């Protein structure tokens, strides 16, 4: 699905991503972990077209998509969410979902004047799709709530719902658990699993909650200092000496040895 080849992203003399190579297999829920400053979010931003790479390549289904802008990658089914949700706060939850699909009929002046029936028909379909998404995510009771009034976890569910309004192939989730209580985090995890198994979504997830990663993701990729340090099942990653040193900390390593 996604192949990253010797990717570099430099900011002056700082090498945020420093020769990273990895593969995200189609149909997987791949975890991406590492300490703060490891380059995870920068890697996401390069893959998703928000930042150009200094060098290296990104392939999607064998096609070189390096440096394509986000809207072009969006059309190909590659979507990215953010640690801080990007909702339209003054619009309702349902309206936020209905905004997602591109090239809607009502966006052109001609249709606004002469294609009102087509606009109504399209809006009816979008409304039905939005309600289906809300039911899937078990937040239909929030459909008429202003998005700005949602809790952090509810906003993360809304962002996940926005990926369901288009034909997403792969979704990059950046710290989906940040600021989310355990109950809602479990709901988000269940939704990700269902989207993966029932609708064929591929996911790559940045997250610091190792319990969440361990239950949800296989494989897990570890980054440190801009490089890929290790890859494997979560249980094996937790036992990797290099990972313990770089990510989990020498204190945990020494505790385990005591």
UniProtKB/TrEMBL annotation:
Protein name as catalogued: Amino acid/amide ABC transporter ATP-binding protein 1 (HAAT family)
SMART domains referenced in this protein's UniProt entry, alphabetically: AAA
Gene Ontology molecular function: any one: ATP hydrolysis activity
Top-rank taxon, per record: Bacteria
Pfam families assigned to the protein according to its UniProt record, in alphabetical order: ABC_tran, BCA_ABC_TP_C
Species for this entry: Pseudoroseicyclus aestuarii
An annotated GO cellular component: plasma membrane
Location of the ABC transporter domain: 2-250
Entry keyword annotation includes Transport: yes
Keyword DNA damage (UniProt): no
Record keywords: ATP-binding, Nucleotide-binding, Transport
CDD domains: ABC_Mj1267_LivG_branched (cd03219)
